[in-house]
Design a protein that fits this description.
This protein is an all-alpha fold. It is built from 15 helices and two strands. Helix content is about 75%, strand content about 0%.
Length: about 425
C-alpha cells in the first residue's frame, strides 16, 4: 500500500470521524463532572470512580475490536461497519444523559454511551494508516487531529455558553454533530479494495481466531520481545495520558473550586487547548517529517511539563488576571498557559499513533491501534482515580493536580528515551514487510 499517495481531501473527510469522537469526549469531560457534583452532590473521589467506569469497559473491548477489524471483510470494508453500528447508539445515549435524574440511570447512560464510542473508535482511527503511506502518516494524523481539535473547540467554545442557557443543550449539540460526522465518513470514504469482501475473513495467515487469546498474546509480546521500542512507546503513552486525562476530567472543577470561575467560564477555558491544538496539528506532523517523530514528541512533553508547573507556581490572582472577554468568558493568564499546553499536546498526540502503527505491518494496523488505545484507556482509568482521591484526601485542594501531572509527564519523557523505532518507513522498508 506504499504506492498510494496521501489524499488530503480524503484525509480531511476521514477526520470527521475523529471530529465526532472529540465532540463527545469534550462535552462529556467538561459537563458530566459538573452534573455529578451539582445534581448528585458527589465528592471528587466518587466522581473519579464514575468517570472511569466507561474507561474500564472500553479497556476490555477496544483491543479485541482492533484485532477483529483487522480480520473482518465486508461489502464496505473492515473498518466502516463499526461506525454504522456505534455512532447512532452513541448519539442516542448522549442525548439521553441530561435527562437522567437518578444516579443509577445516569451511570447506565454514561457507560452505554462510552461502550458505543469504544466500539467504533479503534477501527475508524485504524482507517487512517490503511489509506495513507507510512511516510505521510504524521501529516495525515495532523489533519485528522486538526478535525479532532475543531470538534473540541466547537464543543467547548459553544458548549460553555449553551450550558449557561440550558445544561441540556451541549449534549444535544454533541449528539447532532456526531451523527453528521459519521454520515460524512460513510458517504465519502471508501476502504482499500483488498479489504472488501462479502464474507467474514477471520483466519488470515493461519493466526489464532480466538480474539481474547490474540489480545493477551499481543500485550505479552510487547513486553517480552527483544526490541523494547514498542514497550517504551506504549508506557510513555500510558504516563502522558494519565496526566492529561486526569487534568481534563477535573479541570472544570479546578477552575470553579480553586480559581473561583463560574462553571461555564471554567469549561470554556478548555477550548483554548483545543484551539491551539487544532492550529498546531498539521504543523506538528510536518515538523516530525523534518526533525523525526521522537524528537518532536519529547519536546512536546517538556512544553507540557512547563505549562502545568506554571499553573502551580502562579497564584490565583495572577492566573485569573483578565485581558479580554470572549463570548461572555474571560481571556486570562490561565488561558495563555493553556494555549502553550495545546502546543505541547499537539506535538505529542499527533505523532504518537503513527509511531505505534509504524512498528508493525499493514495487516496488523488495527491490532496495534488497539494496543495504543488499550494503554490510553488504562491511563484514563488510573489517572482520574489517582487524582480524584488525592484531591479528596487533601480536603479538595485541586491545585495538587498541577504537581502530580508533571511527575507522570517526566516518566513519559524517560520512556521515550528508550524508543528507537517508529519513524516513517522508507519505500524499501515497506516493501520488505
Amino acid at each position: 500500500m506504499e504506492s498510494k499517495r496521501m489524499n488530503y481531501r480524503k484525509t480531511f473527510l476521514l477526520g470527521f470521524g475523529f471530529f465526532g469522537v472529540s465532540v463527545i469526549w469534550s462535552v462529556y469531560n467538561a459537563f458530566v463532572p459538573l452534573i455529578l457534583d451539582q445534581r448528585f452532590g458527589l465528592e471528587a473521589g466518587f466522581i473519579s470512580f464514575i468517570m472511569v467506569l466507561d474507561n474500564i469497559a472500553a479497556l476490555l473491548i477496544q483491543p479485541p475490536l482492533g484485532v477483529f477489524s483487522d480480520r473482518l471483510r465486508s461489502p464496505i470494508g473492515r473498518r466502516l461497519p463499526f461506525i454504522v453500528v456505534g455512532a447512532p447508539v452513541a448519539a442516542a445515549m448522549f442525548g439521553i444523559i441530561p435527562f437522567a435524574q437518578t444516579l443509577p440511570l445516569f451511570i447506565f447512560s454514561c457507560v452505554t454511551l462510552l461502550l458505543a464510542m469504544a466500539f467504533w473508535r479503534t477501527p475508524i482511527v485504524a482507517l487512517m494508516p490503511d489509506i495513507t503511506p507510512s511516510s505521510n502518516r504524521s501529516q495525515a494524523n495532523g489533519v485528522i487531529n486538526l478535525m479532532g481539535g475543531l470538534g473540541t473547540v466547537l464543543a467547548t467554545l459553544i458548549g460553555g455558553p449553551l450550558y449557561r442557557i440550558n445544561p441540556n443543550y451541549p449534549f444535544f449539540l454533541g449528539a447532532g454533530l456526531v451523527v453528521i460526522a459519521a454520515l460524512l465518513v460513510l458517504i465519502f470514504i471508501r476502504e482499500p479494495k483488498e479489504y472488501i469482501s462479502s464474507k467474514l475473513h477471520l483466519a488470515a495467515k493461519g493466526k489464532d481466531t480466538e480474539l481474547d487469546k490474540k489480545v493477551t498474546k499481543n500485550i505479552t509480546n510487547v513486553f517480552t520481545q527483544k526490541d523494547k521500542s514498542p514497550m517504551y512507546i506504549l508506557l510513555a503513552i500510558l504516563f502522558w495520558f494519565i496526566a492529561y486525562n486526569a487534568l481534563e476530567t477535573f479541570f472544570t472543577l479546578y477552575g470553579v473550586n480553586h480559581l473561583g470561575l463560574e462553571s461555564g467560564d471554567s469549561a470554556f477555558q478548555i477550548s483554548y487547548i483545543g484551539l491551539v491544538f487544532m492550529v498546531m496539528a498539521i504543523p506538528a506532523g510536518l515538523l516530525a517529517s523534518k526533525l523525526k517523530r521522537k524528537r518532536v514528541i519529547m519536546a512536546g512533553i517538556i512544553i507540557m511539563i512547563a505549562s502545568v508547573l506554571l499553573l502551580y507556581i502562579f497564584p490565583t490572582s495572577v492566573l485569573t488576571t483578565q485581558y479580554a472577554s470572549l463570548m461572555g468568558s474571560g481571556f486570562y493568564v490561565l488561558s495563555i498557559i493553556l494555549m502553550l499546553a495545546g502546543v505541547g499536546w499537539a506535538m505529542i498526540n499527533v505523532n504518537s499513533l503513527p509511531m505505534v502503527v509504524d512498528m508493525t505491518d499493514d495487516e496488523q494496523i488495527g491490532t496495534y491501534t488497539g494496543l495504543y488505545y488499550f494503554f490510553s484507556q488504562v491511563a484514563a482509568t488510573i489517572g482520574p482515580v489517582v487524582f480524584g482521591w488525592t484531591i479528596q484526601l487533601s480536603n479538595n485542594d485541586y491545585r495538587l493536580m498541577m504537581v502530580i501531572a508533571p511527575l507522570f509527564l517526566v516518566l513519559a519523557f524517560l520512556m521515550m528515551i528508550g524508543v528507537h523505532r517508529g519513524e516513517a518507513k522508507t519505500t524499501a522498508e515497506a516493501v520488505q514487510e
